[in-house]
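ugh ok so i messed up the first submission bc i forgot one of the chains. this is the corrected input, ALL of the components this time, i swear. 462 residues overall. if the numbers dont match what u have on ur side tell me asap before i send this to the collaborators (the ones from the other lab, u know who)
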Amino acid sequence: MDTATAVDALLADIRAELPTVRLLTDALDRESYRNDETAYLPAELPAAVALPGSTDEVAGLLRLASKHRVPVVPRGAGTGLSGGAAGIEGALTVALTRMTRILEIDRENLVVVTQPGIINADLKAAVAREGLFYPPDPASYETCSIGGNLGTNAGGLCCVKYGQTRDWVLGLEVVLADGSVIRTGGRNVKDTAGYALTHLFVGSQGTLGVITEATLRLRPLPGPRATMLAFFASLEACGTAVASIIQSGLVPVTLELMDRETIVAVDEVHRLGLDREAAAMLLVESDAPGPAAAAEMDAAEAAVMAAGATSVVRAADAQEADWLRQARRLALRALEEQGTVRMEDVGVPRARVPDLLVAIAEIAGRHGVRCATFGHAGDGNLHPNLVFSRDDPAAAGLTHLVRDEIFRVALSMGGTVTAEHGIGSSRREWLPIQRGEGAVAAMRAIKAAFAPLGILHPGRVL
Ligand SMILES: Cc1cc2nc3c(=O)[nH]c(=O)nc-3n(C[C@H](O)[C@H](O)[C@H](O)COP(=O)(O)OP(=O)(O)OC[C@H]3O[C@@H](n4cnc5c(N)ncnc54)[C@H](O)[C@@H]3O)c2cc1C
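and heres the new structure output, hopefully the right one now
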């Protein structure tokens, strides 16, 4: 059976057997599901988009897709930066955006049980109303979904203290490629029964199953944060400040870096009064309880000054703190005012941050490519953003060259080609270089065990 006939047969079955599933088949509607946030990558138009409202409907969709051998692309809010949720020609995109219900907030056990389509910020706000805190906070937290966060093992601005999404997941409900539904984990803080399937699904970018429910850990809501910006005359000094804060045993909740290109871009758009002459800036925050926050900030200020900070601004109140924090959160959108931005996501052991900063600037400078770097320096995770004009015919080749060099230099420092965005479709060629052929073969075997017909998200990650 050819692809078009298989898709037609699948859609007919969906309409007959799952009449409450919303189906988008009009080309204009499907167009919105072609790309994720990597619009600069070639992406294909999905054959159809299904918007299920329940686990049973997801299971039905996967069962029918298997029957007709039609590939499936799981999708959350489409804010990913790896091409992970981009469309595949002849495939059914299953978008979880209607499954937004919080099923339970269990105060006694400090967990929340939720459907995957809920936006991260909405979940945070709902648990905060109960005096509770769900820490993972990608900079996109107002637009990305919990399902996508689980799919990518998303990081964010407070990983340096609280870890990545994976650290907050206790259990999942997952629909496998054949439509069967399994549960992994639950509400137990400690549980070593069998293989750690929960952690295998988190970060697998929808290649092993579709997550339809998650049981997430919570903690009591911390008090107000103490917030500081520090400016530096050189990237090296800024990198040294990061290393020194980490080595001194401080555990700030945020330790974020922006280079001069990024500072100027943000200030140009938002007029925050940032020091545009500075080579780099650090955002440091503490959510330690009571007076401990100010004490932690005093120690961090001493560390940045010793590393050569040229000036320091400390927020006087919550509103000012929010304003300083915005400088970092607005970075990508501000850079996008200047051209097409290709954001990368390298990571290194934290003590190598100064070396990586210098290496990225050297590579971009040598190739004459505009590169603005910001990121989660406290995690050793930097985002070099290659800014180019979409009309520049040399951009694609040059970008590939620069990315390759940046990836290889990060790997030479014991780093990773992606710390939080995932391999998706855009970094596949570097996976065997980083992990080795043996490890990739093991990943292929795992994928084949979960999705033997190969219909689940083909060509992604592996
Ligand atoms: C301005 C901006 C800032 C960002 N900042 C950060 C940041 O600080 N940290 C960070 O980590 N990322 C960041 N991102 C990237 C992105 O927001 C995250 O990767 C986010 O986790 C994606 O969520 P989503 O709902 O948009 O998922 P999508 O993009 O729709 O999907 C992402 C991946 O997850 C899979 N997936 C989605 N839902 C499910 C499901 N229910 N079951 C199984 N697989 C699923 C998809 O197949 C895909 O592979 C940023 C993006 C932007 C645009």
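quick check: Residues 36-37, 74-81, 84-85, 96, 116, 138-140, 144-145, 147-149, 151-152, 154-156, 205-206, 210-211, 332, 420-421, 457 surround flavin-adenine dinucleotide (CB under 6 Å). that seems consistent at least. The chain has 16 helices and 19 strands.
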